[in-house]
Write a structure and sequence with these properties.
It is built from 18 helices and 18 strands. With 499 residues, the protein is of the alpha/beta class. It has a domain of 163 residues: Isoleucyl-tRNA Synthetase, Domain 1. The strands form five sheets. A six-stranded parallel β-sheet has the order 3-2-1-14-15-9, with helices on both faces. Strands 5-4-8-10 form a four-stranded antiparallel β-sheet, with no helix packed on it. Strands 11-13-12 form a three-stranded antiparallel β-sheet. Helix 4 packs across helix 10, helix 12 packs across helix 13 and helix 15 packs antiparallel against helix 16. The termini are far apart. Bound molecules: zinc ion. Zinc ion binds next to loops.
């Protein structure tokens, strides 16, 4: 069987401060895509990483920017590990073996395609955004994002002929050859392109930006963020050091990005790739921002949600569940701790944890923990086609929908226990039928829940006494073998006490 390749990425997070909850969301969403495709048997490559150059970091770090970015990158990697993120590689833009040569190579390809010209440039520069702003993007010279007057800077830079690609970009996006999800974002980006694309500055003088990759053959110029950061998607799969792997995985199947950087991914990036003669990514999925109790998170208000603290307090799977289930996947959502606690108590400890505990306890009590004879009834019906439904929901980024499909089986199983009241039944034959159904339902739950709650899935599989992880692609009712020794374990989720 030929495996279908699936290459997915997060954006690379800028290493000017510790990773925030928004990046945790992006990691988790992309992780679900990667894990689901792996479950289906696809050949997956999942890349994440860090964007480590730029004048903002240069200013903050002082003498030793490398040390500064090393420390923050370590935290990003720690966050990914704490959240059980299954990335296959991690690319840093200061990587001298893989990334820097790739960036310089792409630069040269664009140059050879005659898409650069040098121009004296006078522009309004926002230090906060770290970029030049057009008049349209400023209100009376003030950056609306940072509420600060943009500085007037004059430099001679390399300009990229972005305007040349305007019509082609419109055609690609309109036809979904470069698909942008959700539709509102596609519309928004098309509107932006149709107002007219201006050529953009692709380099800075070495004097104004020294913490970056030199323009090949021009030591007085540094490659600006677009060509430096976006090329990570090529360097991270071996553009320079592993051509075979690169050829296998490029183009990307899905880039997952925040709405603030859609323009770079849907306009600059495909234009650069066309210029360099490389295939384009197939799809860009855009998620929203996270607010805290309805307010924008900011250090000055002091309402920034620290993902490390939340994971420590509630476990990675609880945070994964909440972010996937309670925040709209492609729109802004709110982080509300009370709501998170409610979810843990009701859906995780209540529905799921309780079910697993009850079923294993019933098996232990009535059958010495051994799986009884096969049976097929009401729960088999709910479980039928579940993997397909979960898979289809994830394909359209409907993580809530996928979880609610799984929860139908969880709730259906709890209801089945309440209706049949196995503790009142003496007839072994009858009991056997009920308990087999429940155990088999747990196996379906463990398999389908894995992309979302990998740790919990593993625990259920262990408690079911399965030596091998059941196959998502080939799961069928009745594969759970009679006589398998289950191992009742600790409850999966502790209820959170509140005042
Ligand atoms: Zn700004």
């Amino acid at each position: 069987m030929i495996k279908i390749k699936f290459y997915t990425t997060t954006s690379i997070i800028y290493t000017n401060s510790d990773p925030h909850i928004g990046f945790a969301l992006e990691l988790i969403q992309t992780d679900v895509l990667a894990r689901l495709h792996r479950s289906k048997g696809d050949d997956v490559f999942f890349l994440t990483g860090t964007d480590e150059h730029g004048s903002k970091i240069q200013k903050m770090a002082g003498d030793d920017p490398q040390k500064f970015v090393n420390d923050i990158t370590e935290k990003v990697q720690e966050l990914a590990s704490l959240l059980n993120i299954s990335n296959d590689d991690f690319i840093r833009t200061t990587d001298t073996e893989r990334h820097i040569p790739t960036t310089q190579d792409i630069w040269t390809l664009i140059e050879n395609n005659d898409d650069f010209y040098r121009k004296k440039y006078q522009g309004h520069y926002c230090v906060g955004c770290e970029c030049f702003k057009t008049d349209k993007e400023l209100n009376d010279g003030v950056c609306p994002i940072h509420n600060k007057k943009a500085e007037l800077i004059e430099e001679e830079n390399f300009f990229f002929k972005l305007s040349k690609y305007q019509d082609k970009l419109i055609q690609l996006i309109e036809s979904d050859e470069l698909k942008i999800v959700p539709k509102e974002r596609k519309k928004e980006i098309l509107n932006f392109i149709k107002t007219g694309l201006e050529d953009i500055s692709f380099s800075r003088t070495r004097k104004s930006l020294s913490w970056g990759i030199p323009v090949p053959g021009n030591n007085d110029q540094t490659i600006y963020v677009w060509c430096d950061a976006l090329t990570n998607y090529l360097s991270g799969i071996g553009y320079t050091n592993n051509k075979k792997q690169f050829e296998k995985y490029w183009p990307a199947d899905v880039h997952v990005v925040g709405k603030d950087i859609l323009r770079f991914h849907a306009v600059f990036w495909p234009a650069m790739l066309m210029s360099a003669g490389l295939p384009l990514p197939k799809e860009i999925f855009v998620h929203g921002f996270i607010t805290k109790d309805g307010k924008k998170m900011s250090k000055s208000i002091g309402n920034v949600v620290d993902p490390f603290e939340q994971i420590k307090k509630y476990s990675a799977d609880s945070i994964r569940y909440f972010l996937l289930n309670d925040l709209p996947a492609s729109n802004d959502g709110d982080f509300n701790e009370e709501m998170l606690i409610n979810r843990i108590n009701a859906n995780l400890a209540g529905d799921l944890g309780n079910l697993v505990y009850r079923v294993l306890a019933l098996t232990e009590k009535n059958f010495d923990g051994k799986v009884p004879k096969e049976s097929k009834g009401k729960l088999a019906e709910i479980a039928s086609g579940l993997t397909d439904r979960v898979s289809k929901s994830v394909e359209v980024y409907d993580f809530q929908g996928a979880l609610s499909e799984i929860w139908k089986l969880i709730k259906g199983s709890n209801q089945y226990i309440n209706e049949t009241e196995p503790w009142k039944i003496d007839d072994k034959e009858k009991l056997s039928e009920i308990i087999y159904e429940l155990l088999e339902a747990l196996r379906f739950i463990a398999v389908t829940i894995k992309p979302f709650l990998p740790d919990t899935s593993e625990k259920i599989i262990e408690q079911l006494g399965l030596e091998e992880e059941p196959s998502f692609a080939d799961i069928k009712w009745g594969q759970l073998k009679e006589g398998t020794q289950t191992k009742k374990g600790k409850i999966l989720f502790q209820k959170v006490e509140t005042e």
